[in-house]
Amino acid sequence: MSTPLKTSFRYLRRSPFQALAAISVLAITYFVMTLLTTTVYSVGQALTYFETRPQTIAFLKTEAKDEEIKALEQKLQSDSRVRTVRVVSREDALELYKNATKDNPLLGELVSPSIFPPSIEFSVTVLQNAQTVLEEVKKEPIVDTIGFTANIGGKDSVNTVIERLKEISKALRTVGFVAVGVLLVTSFLVLIVVMTMRTTMRKSEIESLSLLGATPGFIRTPIVLEALQYSIIGVVVGWLLAVILIMYVTPSLFTYFGEIPILPREMDKFFMLFGVSFVLNLVSALIIALASSTLAVSRSIRTIK
Amino acid sequence: MLEFKNVTKRFGQITALDDISFTVESGEFIFVIGPSGAGKTTIMKLVIHEYTPDSGEIILDGEPLHKFKSWQVPKLRQKLGIVFQDFKLLPSRTIYENIETALAVKRVTKSEWDERIKHVLNLVGLENRAHLFPSQLSGGELQRAAIARAIVVNPSVIFADEPTGNLDWETADGIMKLLVRINEEGKTVIVTTHNQEIVAKYGGRVIEVRDGKIVNDHKVSKKHKHEHTS
């Protein structure tokens, strides 16, 4: 083991309670940060899910010809604001009707395709554009009426759901940013205090090293390494606890949210998500550790001749 | 190799060194003597750039130390072997690790460490104390450990500040013999002391400092048989 690393481990062992305090604060920070990041991700996923569902349906006039329907379909497909387009013919509509009334097959037998108007279901990429696109489609000569798809409960319902989700997402992001910011600043300050205490305790040692000809870098390295050890341990503990908690509640979440993909169901994607969150946590922790320890030790080195 | 040219150092109203000049040649063994507060330690601290002179020049191996910038100081200190009055051994490290630290500071190749440490421990007679902590050693052993740490980096000059202070005669004599042996290996050794008996026994060039001034710079002949009367 290299000398600075050995020295940093020695420092860590010498004052375990200070080390524990620093590690605990960092672990709490990264536990909360992992949970918040996951929640923001899940809300984002739910929002995308609702936004990408076929939201609007244009019922076409019964006299609409196939070429005209095809032309409108192509027009919508070429519109960058439109994400998905699906033409539902009279026959398709009848099939849907039969499926919906399969408990009572007689109802399906009583109707013919001619009573169902053809329709075009489509979704927009950004929900804000929905109204404009709707207005434009409404003006098409073959369009009779326009509305929201029934599977999310009509216009008011879909708007309410999405708007509420957006509000939740926005609030979560704001609260998350503030909470993580406060926790990161607290961790930074706690690390500065701990590292300053450590360097003050070692002042005579630092002085002796300096008199032996140690460069500021040589003196600084074990102290910075010690702070990095705290942050790495803190991130691993905090992240691991959060992942264990999330994995524990995931089956219940999947049951509750059904097909809404709030978290990846495939293991590789699941671990990829938490891998990315771990790397982000680690990077921020390393930055905090480097900044706080460098600041703490520089103050001590400055006073030594 | 070391030259002080009209060096003055003041601490507020107190003049610690007043226009002193002297030259030390390579391979010399020099005593800097004088009572406490005469300015002996200030000379050493000026050499290691812990202090900077108010006026005058200090030249070491042709390099003007008084003009050194702070980034040049570590390199300078790595060239010197300093034995501090209060040893300055790291209390949390064993004697072996203390010596190892000096090698790490100078970035000596790791493969050489063990051999060099064993050699100096053998030289100072602490081979059986290598894995003890400073708090477990006697004053004489601490002094020898400090010498071992100073010489392990193979410096061209050893500066020992009161190496016999607070030691009984026999231990002090042992330390001096060790320093003489190091000098015989070709190293320049500068010893500050207020112990006249030591100076009388070992002789050589003696620079006497009093109230910040050099009052005498002369050769003292060596007593071959020392009789300790105190």
Give the SSE layout.
The complex is a heterodimer of chains A (305) and B (230).
Chain A: H1 3-14, H2 16-52, E1 56-60, H3 66-78, E2 82-88, H4 90-100, H5 105-109, E3 119-124, H6 130-138, E4 143-148, H7 154-201, H8 203-212, H9 216-257, H10 267-302
Antiparallel strand pairs in A: 1-3, 1-4, 2-3
Helix pairs in contact in A: 1-9, 2-7, 2-9, 2-10, 7-10, 9-10
Chain B: E1 2-11, E2 14-24, E3 29-33, H1 40-47, E4 55-60, E5 63-64, H2 73-79, E6 80-83, H3 95-105, H4 110-124, H5 139-151, E7 157-161, H6 169-184, E8 188-193, H7 196-202, E9 204-210, E10 213-220
Parallel strand pairs in B: 3-8, 3-9, 6-7, 7-8
Antiparallel strand pairs in B: 1-2, 1-4, 4-5, 9-10
Helix pairs in contact in B: 3-4, 3-5, 4-5, 5-6
Features:
heterodimer; A: about 300 residues; alpha+beta; four-stranded antiparallel β-sheet; about 10% strand; B: about 230 residues; alpha/beta; six-stranded mixed β-sheet; 7 helices; about 30% strand; globular; disordered C terminus
Characterization of this structure:
The complex is a heterodimer of chains A (305) and B (230). Chain A is α+β, with helices and mostly antiparallel strands and 305 residues long. Chain A is built from 10 helices and 4 strands, in the order H-H-E-H-E-H-H-E-H-E-H-H-H-H. Chain A has helices spanning 3-14, 16-52, 66-78, 90-100, 105-109, 130-138, 154-201, 203-212, 216-257, 267-302, and strands at 56-60, 82-88, 119-124, 143-148. Chain B has 230 residues and is α/β, with parallel strands linked by helices. Chain B has 7 helices and 10 strands. Chain B has helices at residues 40-47, 73-79, 95-105, 110-124, 139-151, 169-184, 196-202, and strands at 2-11, 14-24, 29-33, 55-60, 63-64, 80-83, 157-161, 188-193, 204-210, 213-220. In chain B, the strands form 2 sheets. In chain B, strands 6-7-8-3-9-10 form a 6-stranded mixed β-sheet, sandwiched between helices. In chain B, helix 4 (110-124) packs across helix 5 (139-151). The model of chain B is unreliable at 224-230 (pLDDT under 50). Chains A and B meet through helix 1 and helix 8 of A and helix 2 and helix 3 of B.
